[in-house]
Amino acid sequence: METQTSEAEKEMREWCVALPKVELHAHLNGSVRNSTLLELAKELGDKGAIVLEDVKDVIMKNDRCLPECVRLFDLFHILTTDHDTVTRIAKEVVGDFAAENVVYLEIRTTPKNNEAKGITKRSYMNAVVKGHKSVEDVDALLNNEKLSCTPMSDLGGDTKRKKIYVRLLLSIDRHETTSAALDTVNLAMEMKDQGVIGIDLSGNPVVGEWETYLPALEHAKELGIPTTIHCGEVPNRKEIQAMLDFCPQRLGHVCCLDDEEWKKLKSSVIPVEICLTSNVMTGGTPSLERHHFADLYNAKHPLSICTDDCGLFSTSLSNEYYLACNSSGLSKTELFRLAQGAVEFVFADDEVKKSLRAVFERAAAERL
Ligand code: 6MZ
C-alpha cells in the first residue's frame, strides 16, 4: 500500500513538473539556490568579511518565520549585492524556472542603491537584465519576441531547448521613502523596452505606512504601469481596506482578511497570487489544509499558484502545484485549468498571452 502511495505521489509530482506553468510571484533574491548562497558566503568568508560558519547555519536551518525571513533577506543582500553576482543569480534563477517547465516568468526585484559599491538602482537593474540575456541552454524571450506554439513534449523534454518568457517587475520596498518609491516607478517606465512591465509593493509587512507608497502607486497607475501589492500578510485593517480600494491589477498573499474584507476581495475579482508554502512557513495561515486557497478556489476567484521565494522556502512551482492538489483534492484536469487560467493575469501584452494560450491548448490536446 505504501509503495502504491509513493508510486502515485511520484507520478503526480512528475506530472506537475511536466505541466506548463506560469509564475507571477517570485522575488529574485528569495529564489537563489542554496548552493550559490553558500558559495558566495564562502568567498566573503575567505575575505574575512563574514564568519562563514555563522552564515552557513542561518542559510541551512529551517526557521522561516517572518522575522527570520527578514533577517535572511538582509544576509542575502550582503551576499548578492555587486553587479556580477546580481547578473549571476538573475541568470541562474531563469534557468531553474525554465528547467521545471515554467513557460512565463515574472520575476520581481527591488532596485538597490549602494554608493559604497558604486551601485545605483539603474545599474542594479542593468545587471539583472544582463543576467537574463546570458541564460544558456534555454530560449529566454525577454522582449516582444514570439514564443512559437511549442508542443508539451518540447516543454517537458530533456533534450530539447526550453522556452520561457521572462518579464520584470520592480519592487518598492516598505522601508523606502515616497521619493525613492517614485524613482522606482520612473525607472520602470525608462526600462519598458527591456522587459520591465510592472510594479510591486513588498518588504517587511510590519514596517511603513500605506500613505508613503501611495503617491508612487498612483503615479504608476497614471503611467499605465500595472501594479501588484503584498496585502494582508499580517492583520492591518486600515491598510488592507486601502489596498483593496486602490484596486491593483493583482494582489499577493491576502492571508489575514476579516469577513468584510473577504467579501470585498471576492466582489472585486482582483486576481490573487497564492503562495502556499510561504504562507504556512511565515505563519500567515495555520496550515496547508486551512489555507484560504480552497475557499477562493471554490468561490471561483481568479487565482494563480506561485512560489514567492523558492530558494528561501526550499520549494518549486511544480511542488506548489502538487501541494495545491494534495491539500484541496483537485483533479489533474482542475490543476491544468488552474495553471492555464494564470495566463489571463500576466502583465505582458496580448501577443504574449496569445502564444501562451496556444502552449496550453497544445498541452491539453496532447495530455488530457
Ligand atoms: C514581503 C517579501 C517577501 O527584491 O531583493 N520579499 N516581502 N513578504 C514576503 N514574503 C515572505 N518575500 C520577499 O528580493 C528579496 C526582497 O523581496 C521582498 C523583501 O523586500 C525582500 O527583501 P529582492 O530581489
From TrEMBL:
SUPFAM superfamilies xref list: Metallo-dependent hydrolases
Protein's UniProt name: Adenosine deaminase domain-containing protein
The family this protein is said to belong to: Belongs to the metallo-dependent hydrolases superfamily. Adenosine and AMP deaminases family.
Highest taxon above the source species: Eukaryota
GO molecular function terms attached to this record: adenosine deaminase activity; metal ion binding
Keywords: Hydrolase, Metal-binding, Nucleotide metabolism, Zinc
Cofactor(s) named in the record: Zn(2+)
Cited Pfam families: A_deaminase
Natural source organism: Triticum turgidum subsp. durum (Durum wheat)
GO biological process, alphabetically ordered: adenosine catabolic process; inosine biosynthetic process; nucleotide metabolic process
InterPro entries: A_deaminase_dom (IPR001365), Ado/ade_deaminase (IPR006330), Metal_Hydrolase (IPR032466)
Residues covered by the Adenosine deaminase domain: 20-357
Catalysed reactions listed for this entry: N(6)-methyl-AMP + H2O + H(+) = IMP + methylamine
NADP among keywords: no
